[in-house]
Amino acid sequence: METLDAIVSKINAFAWGPPMLILLVGTGFWLTINLRGLQFTKLGHALYLALVKRREEGDEPGDITHFQALMTALAATVGTGNIAGVATAIAIGGPGALFWMWITGLVGMATKYAEAILAVKYREVDANGEMCGGPMYYISKGLNMPWLGTVFAVFASVAAFGIGNMVQANSVADAVEATFHVPFWATGAVLMVLSAIVILGGIKSIAKVTSLLVPVMIVFYVISACYIIFSNIAEVPAALMFIVKQAFNPTAAVGGFAGATIMMAIRFGVARGVFSNESGLGSAPIAAAAAQTKHPTTQALVSMTQTFIDTIVVCTMTGLVLILTGTWSNGQTGAELTTTAFQAGMPGGAYIVTIGIILFAYSTILGWCYYGEKSIEYLFGVKSVLPYRVVFVIFIGVGAVAKLSLVWNISDTLNGLMAIPNLIGLIMLTPVVVSETKKYFDNK
Domain tally for the chain? Predict the structure, then answer.
């Protein structure tokens, strides 16, 4: 077992190591150049489509609205990474890590845009009359490489049990036990029931719940963070300058102040940024493919706001709270550090973080189940979906009570490896992305 664990750890180091992170961010830069900075010039229009208009007029093909597709994708990405991941990045890489998270998010918006445009363009209707799309489809059809699409689907269907299931369930159980002293098994049982009620109803059920839950949980968390930020508003400009300065002359909190380097700030900022917004991993376009839309570009514009909301908004809120409260350098890391920061910044702050973890993790479970089931459907057909959902729900209970480090490491590795076939598809299909974009805006 130790040998297997060592092998998995080495693969994991590659999957989330500097070469992969460079490839992920490099693809974002490549797409940004080819799309002429579309994520900056069209951001206002994209936010209007996503949050104001919300759906297209008329009977467009698809299962859920633009807004529901965005909320389903946000459900899967706005998770413990926004609470624990940001704290870990700042504790180890220094406050400058937040700057590199911003860079990752800004170029990642172009990546998310490209993923969605391809997902809608190459989507199909399955035997149940539902839309199916994502990297496995645009790699298979767009590149005529079905074997590579199969590789992605295998990675995604298994990775969902770790990053989108057991890790989240255990995070909730741990937070609830620490704050409310509820046994792990009880939290697991409640999570299983609540998840089953939604998951067994399919994408329309998931979309209805996430379209209600996600806005509430994000606004709840952001308002709480804003209370602390505005309580220290005079210090915000200095904090922002401190973040930028630390990006190039970093100071780490964990392991001694002398241990920080620019490479550490970049590595942990980029790694946690990608882990949080999932741009380039290929997960979010699976939800985008279900959107009711006539033109792929419309949903792509909506989808790119996901990365903006996740990284530029929510992660920034967490980072500013850590820095303004001065707790970032106390030697803690992860969710524990964020809890300490919120408690220091406002009465009942610990409860805010605990509730945030519960809502964020629960929504992530819902979103990732859909990603996993669509991947398994690609491999084995529609009849495999219901058994997958049942097994997925069972593993929620397992994850809540057991610390299966090996299973988590394997899932984390597969989560990173998902990016390889997806990035190949994005780079090789860039001309298609540019062509669809030009066609849409020329007609507009």
Answer: 1
